[in-house]
Design goal:
205 residues; four-stranded antiparallel beta sheet; alpha+beta; Protein Transport Mog1p, Chain A; seven-stranded antiparallel beta sheet
């Protein structure tokens, strides 16, 4: 099963299931987040301090796809442009960038988990976050095999990385995470074999 849609990937990426309350107050604490943008085949995220150069023949996720992942309309997303609104900050997960190889289905997503939306979430570190994520992924009963958590350097930044294989689909996933303020920045790579060479396409600002 080579072709693996961004939408199926989004279903597999589970937000932490902790309850939340007082959303308006916590959302107001996280207004620094700004959406990234594409310039040709280069995506720049000022908030993450990263640029990503998309491989030749890959396709970026459209506004419609990104909006669908977040549960908002494409019109809403386009109207807001670079601004992260109060409504978007009340979401658990904000998807910033998605790109996919239309031939073999390899894909990459840059997203931000709003830790303020979960009770005790802002106290989580990267290791705890990935351990919680692994438990939730395992509950899917999709044949996940976890290959451990390791330190990874991406464009000079320190990330924790969870590597997992999904034998049912013949896929490998890499979850690279780094905590930024009250957000968990996550780069999720899904490939059908080999190592995560896509991280070499990131550069620092």
């Amino acid at each position: 099963m080579k072709k693996f849609s961004l939408f199926l990937l989004a279903i597999i990426i589970i937000s932490m299931s902790a309850g939340c309350s007082g959303r308006e107050g916590r959302a107001a604490e996280a207004r620094e987040l700004v959406r990234g943008s594409w310039n040709g085949n280069i995506f720049t995220s000022e908030f993450a301090g990263l640029t990503f150069t998309m491989p030749d023949n890959w396709l970026p996720g459209s506004d419609e796809e990104i909006a669908a992942l977040m549960g908002v309309s494409a019109e809403f997303l386009s109207e807001q442009g670079m601004k992260i609104t109060e409504k978007m900050l009340e979401l658990s997960t904000i998807y910033d960038m998605a790109a996919q190889n239309p031939i073999n289905g390899d894909s990459i997503i840059l997203m931000f988990e709003n830790l303020s939306m979960h009770i005790g979430g802002t106290r989580l570190n990267e290791m705890q976050y990935l351990e919680s994520l692994a438990e939730q992924l395992d509950s899917f009963e999709m044949g996940y095999a976890f290959l451990g958590i390791k330190d990874t350097t991406i464009a000079g930044q320190s990330f924790k990385t969870l590597e997992a294989s999904i034998d049912m689909y013949g896929l490998i996933q890499f979850y690279h995470v780094r905590k930024i303020d009250n957000f968990m920045c996550a780069i999720i790579v899904t490939i059908d074999q080999g190592n995560d060479n896509l991280i070499s396409r990131f550069s620092g600002l």
